[in-house]
């Protein structure tokens, strides 16, 4: 039986410093994160709380443990990692600032706390720029490529039942992940594979960078299905499906549908709902060809010999989801009303893309961006793939409000500004992220470190106290709200937690 799809998004942002004598993205990212955390601390949120790397094992593979995890150097673990009061993690990952959203219990909440991440980055830019000279400026983009064959990720995470065979996940999730780019691709000018000068615009920012169907890596030989076996929860009960193939969406609708449709497909897989063979015979080339084909007419051959388009695959998955929802408990993916809305939007966008894609320009990033670029190219007589169009492509993802083209594209909004502003500092109430963020805000001076599945307190006793949080749907306001609110300090809270068992 499918379990609740607790989920979240990790976004690595592009970064550079205007007028810097030389570009050092690691230093710039460190400046960005540290400036934000320092400014928050000055506003009364207390000292920086570092990330606890003790439970992380990114080298564990769902196909078998490969090697033990080696903890990063001190500079990574303490100087550029922070836990936020909204339950998120804000840190430097390789050469990029990364915002990892708190765990949420619905796709719509995924949008809220992803948007909160954008606002965190905007506040961080403002804070960082106060420390720079007048002629320098940190600029951040929510995109996935620097245009020089370097890609950075937007990763999704979904809690799944450990009992589900991993090969079933591979077989049945691959078709969705390969073809969903038709409605959640962010669009990109050009192609970053050597020799493909004929591709002047494509659906996805990330498709060019994938090389394997299944694998452990996330930065080299990127796989469609990532096998990292790091559940950040009870490993006997759960796995975390780490999806690295998505784009960074500026469209709230696209973020919502990316999360919602994938969560539904994964719930169907857990329930072993009958699904036809939709896997491509050659998944990686198929992924790329779909991205390169603006007509959406590109076909691929399934493992059972059928010839099908990405739109047709998505229509079959949507129909299967409707049949599944009629016979199963949909509360694991938001409930009847939420699923009905998702299925309706899923069908509608496929119809729009097939018959008149301009109707999808208020929802689908690659269509919205393509319309802006096409109009500009026509007015100025620009050739496809020109340098000016590449610059405008980047500007679509610019987080500076006065420069961001996505904010002028007429994209549909799903969540209110009030919700987003609240989510900058407040955690979701219905996952364990509530406990993480709330105790950090209330007992800041007594929190030593935190991570996804535990918090370490210093209550003044002879040893530190670790509170495990192995259940993603516990640690909520409904369960622990009164206990936290009535505790004068962390010691009292720990005593109550121990008494409650």
Automatic annotation (TrEMBL):
It comes from the Bacteria. One of its GO terms (molecular function) is hydrolase activity, acting on carbon-nitrogen (but not peptide) bonds, in linear amides. One of its GO terms (biological process) is protein pupylation. Belongs to the Pup ligase/Pup deamidase family. Pup deamidase subfamily. PANTHER family: PUP DEAMIDASE/DEPUPYLASE, PUP DEAMIDASE_DEPUPYLASE. NCBIfam families: depupylase_Dop (TIGR03688). This is Proteasome accessory factor PafA2.
């Amino acid at each position: 039986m499918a379990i609740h799809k607790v989920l979240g998004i990790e976004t690595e942002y592009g970064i550079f410093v205007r007028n810097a004598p030389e570009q050092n993205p690691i230093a710039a990212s460190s400046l960005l994160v540290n400036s934000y955390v320092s400014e928050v601390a000055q506003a009364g949120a207390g000292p920086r709380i570092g990330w606890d790397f003790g439970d992380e094992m990114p080298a564990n593979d769902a196909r078998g443990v490969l090697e033990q995890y080696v903890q990063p150097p001190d500079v990574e673990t303490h100087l550029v990692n922070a836990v936020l009061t909204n339950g998120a993690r804000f840190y430097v990952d390789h050469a990029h600032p990364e915002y990892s959203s708190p765990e949420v219990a619905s796709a719509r909440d995924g949008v809220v706390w992803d948007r909160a991440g954008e606002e965190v980055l905007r506040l961080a830019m403002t804070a960082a720029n106060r420390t720079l000279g007048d002629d320098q400026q940190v600029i951040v983009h929510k995109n996935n490529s620097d245009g020089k064959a370097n890609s950075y990720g937007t990763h999704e995470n979904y809690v799944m039942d450990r009992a589900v065979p991993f090969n079933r996940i591979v077989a049945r999730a691959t078709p969705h992940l390969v073809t969903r780019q038709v409605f959640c691709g962010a669009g990109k000018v050009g192609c970053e594979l050597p020799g493909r000068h004929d591709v002047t615009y494509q659906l996805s920012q990330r498709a060019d960078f994938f090389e394997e169907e299944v694998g452990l890596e996330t930065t080299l030989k990127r796989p469609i299905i990532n096998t990292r076996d790091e559940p950040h929860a009870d490993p006997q009960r759960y796995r975390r499906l780490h999806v690295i193939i998505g784009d960074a969406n500026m469209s709230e609708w696209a973020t919502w549908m990316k999360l919602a449709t994938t969560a539904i497909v994964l719930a169907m897989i857990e329930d072993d709902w009958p699904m036809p063979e939709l896997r491509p015979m050659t998944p990686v080339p198929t992924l790329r060809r779909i991205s390169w084909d603006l007509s959406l007419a590109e076909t691929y051959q399934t493992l059972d010999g059928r010839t099908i388009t990405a739109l047709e695959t998505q229509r079959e998955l949507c129909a299967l989801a409707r049949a599944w929802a009629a016979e199963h408990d949909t509360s694991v993916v938001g409930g009847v009303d939420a699923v009905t809305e998702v299925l309706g939007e899923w069908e509608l966008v496929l119809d729009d893309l097939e018959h008149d894609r301009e109707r999808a320009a208020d929802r689908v990033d690659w269509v919205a961006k393509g319309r802006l670029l096409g109009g500009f190219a026509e007015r100025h007589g620009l050739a496809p793939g020109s340098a000016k169009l590449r610059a405008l492509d980047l500007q679509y993802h610019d987080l500076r409000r006065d420069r961001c083209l996505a904010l002028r594209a007429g994209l549909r909004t799903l969540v209110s500004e009030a919700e987003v502003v609240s989510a900058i500092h407040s955690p979701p109430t219905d996952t364990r992220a509530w406990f993480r963020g709330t105790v950090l805000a209330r007992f800041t001076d007594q929190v030593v470190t935190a991570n996804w599945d535990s918090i370490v307190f210093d209550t003044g006793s002879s040893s530190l106290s670790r509170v495990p949080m192995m259940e993603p749907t516990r640690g909520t306001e409904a369960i622990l709200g009164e206990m936290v609110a009535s505790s004068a300090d962390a010691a009292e809270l720990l005593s109550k937690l121990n008494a409650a068992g």
